[in-house]
Amino acid sequence: MPRMGLLADSPVPPGFTGTRLGVCNLCEAICGLQVTFTDGEVTGIRGNPEDPLSRGYVCPKGTSLADVYSDPDRLRRPARRVGTGAEATWEEMEWDEALDLVADRVAAVAAEHGRDAVAVYLGNPNAHSLGSATHGTALVRSLRTRNRFSASSVDQWPHQLLAWQMFGHQLLIPVPDIDRTDLFLVVGGNPMASNGSLMTVPDFPARARALRERGGRMVVVDPRRTETAKIADEHLFVRPGSDAALLLAMVHVLLREGLATPPTYVDHLDELAGLVADFTPELAERATGIAAADVERLARELAAADRAAVYGRLGVSTHGFGSVCQWAVNVLNILTGNLDREGGVMFPEPAIDTVGRRIVSPGHHDKWRSRVRGLPEFAGELPVSVLQEEITTPGEGQVRALMTIAGNPVLSTPDGRGLAAAMDGLDFMVSIDIYLNETTRHADVVLPVTTALERDQYDLVFHGLAVRNTARFVPALLPKEEGTKHDWEVFGALALRLAARTGDRLPLRARLQQRARLTASPRLLLPLLLRGNRYGLTWRRLRRAPEGVDLGPLRPCLPERLQTKGGRVDLTPALVVADLERLRGVLHDSPAPDPDELLLIGRRHKQDCNSWLHNTTRLTRGKARHHLMVHPEDLAARGLRDGDLLTVTSRVGSVEVECAATEDVMRGVVSLPHGYGHGLPGVRLSVASAVPGVSINDLTDPERLDLSGNAALNGTPVRIAAAPGAATAAGSGGAALAT
Ligand SMILES: Nc1nc2c(c(=O)[nH]1)N[C@H]1C(S)=C(S)[C@@H](COP(=O)(O)OP(=O)(O)OC[C@H]3O[C@@H](n4cnc5c(=O)[nH]c(N)nc54)[C@H](O)[C@@H]3O)O[C@H]1N2
Ligand SMILES: Nc1nc2c(c(=O)[nH]1)N[C@H]1C(S)=C(S)[C@@H](COP(=O)(O)OP(=O)(O)OC[C@H]3O[C@@H](n4cnc5c(=O)[nH]c(N)nc54)[C@H](O)[C@@H]3O)O[C@H]1N2
Ligand code: SF4
Ligand SMILES: [Mo]
Known about the structure:
Rossmann fold, Barwin-like endoglucanases, seven-stranded mixed beta sheet, six-stranded mixed beta barrel, disordered C terminus, binds ligand MGD, binds iron/sulfur cluster, Prok_Mopterin_Oxidored, iron
């Protein structure tokens, strides 16, 4: 029987054999782990059945956490680039020298060209790191730049914008109460592969099974018959980018048929009826391809269900009308009485309430605009789709230095190839990252940090989005290697150095306080953050339960928890309502679609983690999964065949990739996975560089945006043709169309 180090709250000793509890920080499901050690090495990672939220679930990615830790390609010391591109070499640096150099160069750019000449981009893993929450924000704030960017504007800005507009706080996001619902309508999400998003729902497969076993139904609306669609009771193909017409038509039906039962704390129901009057099921049918009768039936089923939850995720967020879609999703839940109802959509109540305690600001909009395109900020950030032009367009306020923190925007933001080229024109770039990848190869200095198994973790963000109220502090399992630094140490050290150089001369007392805060570990801050929590959960109790403390199912909490002025919900938020004209324009006035054009959408696979987890053979062996999925009839119409090498061209670029014929995508739609395209010069990823595939974001377009400023990554118009020189059905004369 292995020793269970349950109460241990320091890293395992050298040569340890036994089991310790850990946590996976790779996705929003935040699974609890049992990590087995043999002679100090990790020899097994399993789900922890004692975890009250994840209940023993683990996915293939979770078991690869130790691969990241032991990856020989991972950076462990600061590195400085000498030369460029394929010829670049990297020199290791001492920490103090590297931190001083970065602070000197960043401060020099700010001094010479102004604070806005320094841009910062925060990537997705920041949301999964306690140290980033407690110390990263201080570093970003210390830059005092308006050119702040993050992966949020290629992901969930529409959700945040609507949460702020309707519920008063950008993180007051309703979460499906999946364990108690009877009808789960999933629009543009694939939790069977992604394990859920803005819905922390470990073990989605078992929860979906339980839904069916208690007589409930799951309906999926998606242009692709996804892994989730395949286990659903019903799947409806929808034309990419058209969902707003579907969702508003459902609102229309509810109001027309008198099926709405909204709570008393909402305003502007009458205005709403006027706004959706022309969004009929017939219009929805023309736009989406879903029959008007099905649109009506879906609306009626929602109204009739005792408990139903409408969930719209990435597919309708990274979308030309993402904000209208998220608005309509909220309105559907409200009108059917499902907001704040058990089995509907509910607000989690985390022990550390980032919303109520204002640890995160409620949100704001258009306090400043981007210099070149004049796009408004949201919640203190500009859309990352403008980053490239802010670097390349000369003039006052031009971005000349860039800091990326746990982000890979070259693969994850629109026109990544163009952004990569722009990076080479910067005066200085620093990346806080663990790999030399497609983005960080452009940096002058890379500052690495420790990885998940070496860090303390408390999920400040995801307990607030989880389908059950739980809290869990998991201490670091592995000792930090000699000469490495935690992310919070790097953030703190840089923030202090920058403050010293950029003339932020605080009074001595304030300076000492700042130093104390920035040098205190996150673990020391947690007891303060826990103070006064609604559960009376003590730090002592939390520390003794690395498997997690169960705080119970989600509970109704409205209108008390609304953060809006007056504690009411506006059903017709002005910002979003203003976008309806643009939507009407697209629905009524657009020219007929070009028959040669196809609409490109993204996808996720179970073994991928955005762009950065391909450097492990555990996750990359087996059948290749990088292909462009195309409907067989779309291939045949062009004289192309399954497996052909194709050129895919959009307004911004083109790529060459093999295709796979499948009826799982609807006609007129093609799909590429996101996060591929690693074989670039200078990328030091020995396994990943050999993984085939191209970057979908060499095709996506920074001009295509939602009202919020979020990139419309999905629904990008593309054309396909046989790649030059490739043998194809057309090229070999094998298809009727060839002559
Ligand atoms: N076309 C298209 N584009 C998309 C998407 C899509 O579906 N389609 N999805 C979008 C979404 S939802 C997201 S969230 C973004 C993600 O966009 P990004 O966050 O820019 O990209 P990631 O691939 O998550 O890159 C994470 C980076 O952090 C590094 N890293 C990993 N762990 C750590 C750590 O602990 N500390 C530090 N400092 N660095 C670390 C990795 O090496 C990598 O460089 O991509 C978006 N882009
Ligand atoms: N395995 C794995 N898990 C992950 C990640 C990963 O990279 N790999 N990334 C994590 C991150 S950062 C996030 S944000 C989440 C995202 O989690 P999800 O929201 O589940 O995202 P996707 O799996 O990309 O699913 C989006 C779906 O939208 C569909 N879609 C595209 N365009 C449209 C449209 O116009 N209308 C409709 N109705 N649907 C459309 C796509 O076909 C796809 O099935 O996943 C997280 N989990
Ligand atoms: S579902 Fe997400 S959190 Fe759970 S093991 Fe997989 S990657 Fe980790
Ligand atoms: Mo994301």
